[in-house]
Design brief:
The chain is built from 9 helices and 11 strands. The chain is of the alpha/beta class. Helix 5 links the parallel strand 7 and strand 8. The protein is globular.
Length: about 260
């Protein structure tokens, strides 16, 4: 059941787990580490202020669409969120600013994507969790082919994923995207990449060169520093992993108890 609580801003929880944090007075304030990394991707994929067509799979309280509307005025954004009750709650309690140009659909992300026209989005952001796990229908190479169809040439896909050592799920996801896109990168906190703890990782994919250098500088200088892996280092991380089809796809692993709790 979604719930909202107000302190300095709004923290939305789903079944007791933190889901979104929104500051209605400052849409550029991003509380969660992984959201900041997704925002860095938005900042780096095009020159500052340039409007983009953005497709969000998973919406939550629309934290990232609010950020994009504030930092890239004129952007056209589409959000696909499965939880219709959550969509209604956010519309009632956390309305978007005027002229945000954000359209929200209450729908299944995979089904909606399969019905979307080709070459629709400059950037696609996936942050879809059923409870605390990425659903299996979003973890197959067939899903990746739909992503590639809907992205425009040179477009960028960015997904929030979660895994821990030995990274079987994350490595399979990189193999899936590597089978379809020529450029990949991975953004995560160093302790996660070293296998010290379970945590979020942002996977990037494109058929054009990714802004790895600019993104690495932003992530390193962030209040929550992260590392960007690409090229040979990422190939070593992924070595031996193979793409996974719909028939064998599984949800992301269940996080350890307390992995994403807030104090």
């Amino acid at each position: 059941m979604p719930d909202v609580d107000r302190e300095r801003a709004w923290l939305l929880t789903v079944d007791g787990a933190p889901q979104s944090y929104v500051d209605l007075d400052d849409p550029e304030h991003l509380e969660f580490e992984y959201v900041r990394r997704l925002a860095h991707v938005l900042d780096c994929v095009a020159p500052a202020g340039v409007a983009l067509d953005v497709l969000h799979l998973g919406g939550g309280a629309l934290t990232l669409p609010r950020y994009a509307a504030a930092t890239r005025p004129g952007s056209r954004q589409t959000v696909v969120e499965f939880d219709a009750q959550l969509v209604e709650l956010v519309a009632e309690h956390l309305p978007l600013p005027a002229r945000s140009d954000v359209t929200v659909h209450a729908a299944d992300a995979r089904a909606w994507l399969e019905g979307a026209p080709a070459d629709r989005a400059d950037i696609m952001v996936a942050d879809v969790f059923g409870g605390s796990r990425v659903p299996a229908q979003l973890t197959s190479v067939e899903y990746v082919r739909e992503v590639a169809r809907v992205l425009r040439p040179g477009g960028v896909y960015a997904a929030n994923l979660a895994d821990g050592a030995p990274f079987a799920f994350l490595r399979a996801q990189l193999a899936n995207f590597g089978a379809v896109f020529k450029e990949l990168a991975l953004v995560a906190e160093p302790g996660v990449l070293r296998g010290r703890r379970f945590g979020n990782a942002v996977l990037l994919a494109s058929d054009a060169e990714l802004p790895v250098g600019a993104l690495a500088r932003r992530c390193a200088a962030d209040a929550f520093p992260a590392r960007v892996e690409a090229g040979a280092a990422l190939a070593r991380f992924t070595k031996g992993a193979v793409p996974v089809g719909d028939a064998d796809a599984v949800a992301s692993p269940e996080p350890p108890e307390g992995a994403f709790s807030v104090g």
